[in-house]
Known about the structure:
The protein is mainly α and 191 residues long. The protein is built from five helices and no strands.
Amino acid sequence: xxxxxxxxxxxxxxxxxxxxxxxxxxSALVPRHDSATRWKFLRDVLVFQLKMxxxxxxxxxxxxxxxxxxxxxxxxxxxxxxxxxxxxLRWGAHSERVIDVYSAIESHEGTKINPNYTxxxxxxxxxGVLVRECEKGGTATSIKAAMxxxxxxxxxxxxxxxxxxxxxxTRASETLRSAFQRNSNEEDKPE
Length: 191
């Protein structure tokens, strides 16, 4: 049998012959694989990298363009306040949907995002604290203390997943450590 046939994804056996060409019980089992799935995976990896490059180039271009649009909106009166800036944001949002960096996982089950712990929610919370403190005539010290309390509140709300990950890592390292200690103790025993 030719080597190419043995390596082809259509080779029907779950065992490949040993080097001598004869099947025996010591031949390594070779797991079946789905070639189409493997190539889809590799395609998704390459497309993801391309999309990340495009997305980053777009973001790199959007930074100065959005600042320039905001500058023009401040200097020149438009139809409404910030018209050029918001047009740049609409273009950026549209291009993000067109690039669709994470399209490869659309068919996979997604994770739910707590709307209280998004970047927009954190900014709104901190902004609200700042506005309230300024309206009360707060000093820099009282504003800083209020902002610290708000940040602590965000940390408390998001500490659950972080603590679970830390606990899982600790348990895994303890399990590995005890397994290594058992192995070294068994090796040290005289026969």
